[in-house]
Design goal:
alpha+beta, Nuclear Transport Factor 2, Chain: A, six-stranded mixed sheet, 6 strands, globular
């Protein structure tokens, strides 16, 4: 059985390699609650998966770099650098902090914090 740090590293590797759907299918709990900044949260795996599919369909990722991480018991924090072009917003280049709370190897809650300005 993998330890928690190995699980989180595998999750980060999928994200870094633009394997977003694979990450959703393998690492997100059925009752996931995901929030970007102060937006309304996305609740449940079906809604979350649709949100991820929408991002993939409307964005061309140029760079997705993991800058640093913190991994503690049932908590992971990642500092990401994103550069991508979105069909609606154009080219975006920003850094993001993502915080995930885990339970039994699945993400049950996550929050993303970033400034596009």
């Amino acid at each position: 059985m993998k330890n928690f740090k190995d699980t989180v590293e595998e999750f980060y590797s999928l994200i870094e390699n633009n394997k977003f759907i694979e990450a959703v299918d393998k690492f997100y709990d059925q009752n996931i609650i995901s929030t970007d900044n102060s937006s309304e949260p996305t609740k449940g795996i079906e809604n979350f998966r649709k949100s991820v599919e929408n991002f993939i369909a409307n964005s061309e990722v140029e760079k997705l770099e993991l800058l640093s991480t913190i991994v503690e018991e049932n908590l992971s924090v990642a500092h990401w650098h994103y550069i991508f072009t979105n069909k609606m917003f154009g080219k975006l280049d920003y850094k993001q902090i993502s915080v995930q709370r885990w339970k039994e190897g699945k993400i049950i809650q996550e929050n993303h914090f970033y400034n596009l300005g």
